[in-house]
């Protein structure tokens, strides 16, 4: 009986301890945004974690971190290189490592536990790790190697290999590798890593990224073989629209350093050097724009294995090349993601055989086919069919997007391209294949490996398709740099496109590492006078720089990254670049008015037929320039304030006052009418606070009348569109914003959706209403800029927004704005603190709002049209709910603050 009672007590204690553990735990550990990353070269990397609790109003009150070089010892609290001790703070993101100086090429293990504000302590988290890269160029003992072939811009891809031996029990092995060109590496016949198009694209003469790969499991006792294949890529392939090759160089080369650590603590390094051998492989031609030619008859079977006979291969040539510019890769490289099957096999009116994959995507087609030796298949890629239903690729300009495969014969052969990618939905098949079997082909989506973070859906199927199109426009164009389009002979990092889309991008996916890397490229390519190139990396030349709305990428993205992620380091890193851009505009101004230089203006705005009334949506380019001059100056002021640069804050505050006065004098009549009466002119003036408050109501009226005069259609281009609906909502005209969003006829966001689009178009009417196309000179069907409307849908329609006083969603703003006969809208976002949700619906006149706020965060709630109504939360009167902040009436709305947890608000909608 005694043992029985003891068992009951222990069982109850077990349940109690289990319940406590479930109430508070730590998960999703990150080092510099990444989980268990390789190649961290920060001297004091930043650590982040998420807190899981079933309770409401949970805040962290303290944390303890411990770090070691042995996972077993760490879990036992032994042999630590850092024990933070209890730190009484809410900080759970970007906590800097504070232990002994880190060593390069070393794995560090860490875990964390926390206390909350309700007296609970979590257990230790699971053990996570980071591996350091090579901190100094002097640590690169490897040599650059190339071929002895004469420089050629269209030669076959060379293949390199080396055999080496291990000399004991291996504890770990890490490969550090980069290339002038692109590389694919193998160890003992197995591909190393999942990255595609490595090492990515930077201004190679200024900074070159290397990757770090854990390869311990690929090594064998005794003899091993390592090798890699090189491709032209951005380094020496076609770039831009002038049909030029070899922008960065004419000779492919690579640098590889395999560091093996044995169980006894000794290390051995296998370097790329003159002992390596090379030959030509089966890739006869490979280019990012023009595709690939692959002759399977030339394959070197098992070429990266020990037993392969390389007697006929040549000795690699050692080259001199700069190692000082090497940096560890911090961004997610491209990887393979979704696969698509053929949805339809089409025989066109011209008799062509075309595969329809149902989605405009970026990547390539893989296949498994059999054919006799020497026969071939060619795949030609296009985005749309023409009006008659025939394959169409005229909008690709000089880019061919052809993939040709020559069979070796003897059975089923599998293939996918290596150093190229295509933008397509449709694939035309030519060659020697007598019968095309759709099941033999798969389309593979390839894009930078960013975690999805946000979802958005509504009661309107067209808006849901619009969101789908926005996401796929982002996926297709985030290929290591944010490209304008992924299919024609361009695919450049246009700065204007990137800045207008950033807020939308940061909702859909975790773009922190992606844009941290690219903004370093922006600063790297920024001219000495502070001017910012049109494209980054800059392959157009120094004269192609300095346009308003494009150069402002230098200020807009760093500030918005800070708002979205709460990362002050991006501001500190980019501050010289931000300041340089504002100072450039100042240097080009006279009497504080910037009215000089070339500007793209409101790119691709709607141009109506002027035959009847002579009007057009043209916005004065210098008016736009002055507005963005003010905006960037304001962002620089904000940044100086965050970074504690008081002198700069004061200096640029005075400058901003003069900029706005110059704007009023030059572009505004005494009655508040603007010299350009376009939607974009009024939108920019209102959004950037260029007008004194007494002139803003008239400006809003002018804007609304303009919209209504176009039959509730927008006329904005790249620079006006992102702010259009935001301005209308800010000034009380959300009804007009909904009219624009839900407009189904041209020009509108939903017109392409109604025309069958699966991505965002470059032009409002890429396909005209009669089925014909816009000009072939510039007509991409995968161009994300107009997808910037997503930002309004998430932040205003669904109502999930940031608060700049506590950025990175430390404080969340939930303020949905229903309208447009929409009965349901939901946004979910995985923030650095955890899942945040704003999900509303209207059922039988009752407004229902579900809100989720993660632990260690708070929220300000605004319930629309809830004044003078009975509001409940999970069935309890709002004013009786514990720990709800002070309830106030804000016009027709009701506002209050809440802590973490899940809430269900309901009230009758008036």
In short, what is this structure?
The protein has 910 residues and is of the alpha+beta class. It has 5 domains: 2-131, Immunoglobulin-like (Sandwich), CATH 2.60.40; 137-328, Galactose-binding domain-like (Jelly Rolls, Sandwich), CATH 2.60.120; 338-440, Jelly Rolls (Sandwich), CATH 2.60.120; 454-797, Alpha/alpha barrel (Glycosyltransferase); 802-908, Maltose phosphorylase, domain 3, CATH 2.60.420.
CATH classification, class level of the largest domain: Mainly Alpha
Q: Any low-confidence stretches, pLDDT <50, length ≥5?
A: 1-21
CATH architecture of the largest domain: Alpha/alpha barrel
Q: What is the averaged pLDDT score?
A: 95
EC number: 3.2.1.40
Signal peptide: 1-21
Domain Alpha-L-rhamnosidase concanavalin-like: 347-447
GO molecular function: alpha-L-rhamnosidase activity
Protein model, in words:
By secondary structure, this protein is of the alpha+beta class. 23% of the residues lie in helices and 28% in strands. The protein has 16 helices and 46 strands. It starts with a helix and ends with a strand. Helix 13 packs parallel to helix 16. The chain folds into 5 domains: 2-131, Immunoglobulins (Immunoglobulin-like), CATH 2.60.40.10; 137-328, Galactose-binding domain-like (Jelly Rolls, Sandwich); 338-440, Galactose-binding domain-like (Jelly Rolls, Sandwich); 454-797, Alpha/alpha barrel (Glycosyltransferase); 802-908, Maltose phosphorylase, domain 3, CATH 2.60.420. Strands 18, 19, 23, 24, 25, 26, 29, 30, 31 and 32 form a 10-stranded mixed beta sheet that branches. Strands 33-38-39-40-46-42-43 form a 7-stranded antiparallel beta sheet. Strand 38 and strand 39 form a beta hairpin.
């Amino acid at each position: 009986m005694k043992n029985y009672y003891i068992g009951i007590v222990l069982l109850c204690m077990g349940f109690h301890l289990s319940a406590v553990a479930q109430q508070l735990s730590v998960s999703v550990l990150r080092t510099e945004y990444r989980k268990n990353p390789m190649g961290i070269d920060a001297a004091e990397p930043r650590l982040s974690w998420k807190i899981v609790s079933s309770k409401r109003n949970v805040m962290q009150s303290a944390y303890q971190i411990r770090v070691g070089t042995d996972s077993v010892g760490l879990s036992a609290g032994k042999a630590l290189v850092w024990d933070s001790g209890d730190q009484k703070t809410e900080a759970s993101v970007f906590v800097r490592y504070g232990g002994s100086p880190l060593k390069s090429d070393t794995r560090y293990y860490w875990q964390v536990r926390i206390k909350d504000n309700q007296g609970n302590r979590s257990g230790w988290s699971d053990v996570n790790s980071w591996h350091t890269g090579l901190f100094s160029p002097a640590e690169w003992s490897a040599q650059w190697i190339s071929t002895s072939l004469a420089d050629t811009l269209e030669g076959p891809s060379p293949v390199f290999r080396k055999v080496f031996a291990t000399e004991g029990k291996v504890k770990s092995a890490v490969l550090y590798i980069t290339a002038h060109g692109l590389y694919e590496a193998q160890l003992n016949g197995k591909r190393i890593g999942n990255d595609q198009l490595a090492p990515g694209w930077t201004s190679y003469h200024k900074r070159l990224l290397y990757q770090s790969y854990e390869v311990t499991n690929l090594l064998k006792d005794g003899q091993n073989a390592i090798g890699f294949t090189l491709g032209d890529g951005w380094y020496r392939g076609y770039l831009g629209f002038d049909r030029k090759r070899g922008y960065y160089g004419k000779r492919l080369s690579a640098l590889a350093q395999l560091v093996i650590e044995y169980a006894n603590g000794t290390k051995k390094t296998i370097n790329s050097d003159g002992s390596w051998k090379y030959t030509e492989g089966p890739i006869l031609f490979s280019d990012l724009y023009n595709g690939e030619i692959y002759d399977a008859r030339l394959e070197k079977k098992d070429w990266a294995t020990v037993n392969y006979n390389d007697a006929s291969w040549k000795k690699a040539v050692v080259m001199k090349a700069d190692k000082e510019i090497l940096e560890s890769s911090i961004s997610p490289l491209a990887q393979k993601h979704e696969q698509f099957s053929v949805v339809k096999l089409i025989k066109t009116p011209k008799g062509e055989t075309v595969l329809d994959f149902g989605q405009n995507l970026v990547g390539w087609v893989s296949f498994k086919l059999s054919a006799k030796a020497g026969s071939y298949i060619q795949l030609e890629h296009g985005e749309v069919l023409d009006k008659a239903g025939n394959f169409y690729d005229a909008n690709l300009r000089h880019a061919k997007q052809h993939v040709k495969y020559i069979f070796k014969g003897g059975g089923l052969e599998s293939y996918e391209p290596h150093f190229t990618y295509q933008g397509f939905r449709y694939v035309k098949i030519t060659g020697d294949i007598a019968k095309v079997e759709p099941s033999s082909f798969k389309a593979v989506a390839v894009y930078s490996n960013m975690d999805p973070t946000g979802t958005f859906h509504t009661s309107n199927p067209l808006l849901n398709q619009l969101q789908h199109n926005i996401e796929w426009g982002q996926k297709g164009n985030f290929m290591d740099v944010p490209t304008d389009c992924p299919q024609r002979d361009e695919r450049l990092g246009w700065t204007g496109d990137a800045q207008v889309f950033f807020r939308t991008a940061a909702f859909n996916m975790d773009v922190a590492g992606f844009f941290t890397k690219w903004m370093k490229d922006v600063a790297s390519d920024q001219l000495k006078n502070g001017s910012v190139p049109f494209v980054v990396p800059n392959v157009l030349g120094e004269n192609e720089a300095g346009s308003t709305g494009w150069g402002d990428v230098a200020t807009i993205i760093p500030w918005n990254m800070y708002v979205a992620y709460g990362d002050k380091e991006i501001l500190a890193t980019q501050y010289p670049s931000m300041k340089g851009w504002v100072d450039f505009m100042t240097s080009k101004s006279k009497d504080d008015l910037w009215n000089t230089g070339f500007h793209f203006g409101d790119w691709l705005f709607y141009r109506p037929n002027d035959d009847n009334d002579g009007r057009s949506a043209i916005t004065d380019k210098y008016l736009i320039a002055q507005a963005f001059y003010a905006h960037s100056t304001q962002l620089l002021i904000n940044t100086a304030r965050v970074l504690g640069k008081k002198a700069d804050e004061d200096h640029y505050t005075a400058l901003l006052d003069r900029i706005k006065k110059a704007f009023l004098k030059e572009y505004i009549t005494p009655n508040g009418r603007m010299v350009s009466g376009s939607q974009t002119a009024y939108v920019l003036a209102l959004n950037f606070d260029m007008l004194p408050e007494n002139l803003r109501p008239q400006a809003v009226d002018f804007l609304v009348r303009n919209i209504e005069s176009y039959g509730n259609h927008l006329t904005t281009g790249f620079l006006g569109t992102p702010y259009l609906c935001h301005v209308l909502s800010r000034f009380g005209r959300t009804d007009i914003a909904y009219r624009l969003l839900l407009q189904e006829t041209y020009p509108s966001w939903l017109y392409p959706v109604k025309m069958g689009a699966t991505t965002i178009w470059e032009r409002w009417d890429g396909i005209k209403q009669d089925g014909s196309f816009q000009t072939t000179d510039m007509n991409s069907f995968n161009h994300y800029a107009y997808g910037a409307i997503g930002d309004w849908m998430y932040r205003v329609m669904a109502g999930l927004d940031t608060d700049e006083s506590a950025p990175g969603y430390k404080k969340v703003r939930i303020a949905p704005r229903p309208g447009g006969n929409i009965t349901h809208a939901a946004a979910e976002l995985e923030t650095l603190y955890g899942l945040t949700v704003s999900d509303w619906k209207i059922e039988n006149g009752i407004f229902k709002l579900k809100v989720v706020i993660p632990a260690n965060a708070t929220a300000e709630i605004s319930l629309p049209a809830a004044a003078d109504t009975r509001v409940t939360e999970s069935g309890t009167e709002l004013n009786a709910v514990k720990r709800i902040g002070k309830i106030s009436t804000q016009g027709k709305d009701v506002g209050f603050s809440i802590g973490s947890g899940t809430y269900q608000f309901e009230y009758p909608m008036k």
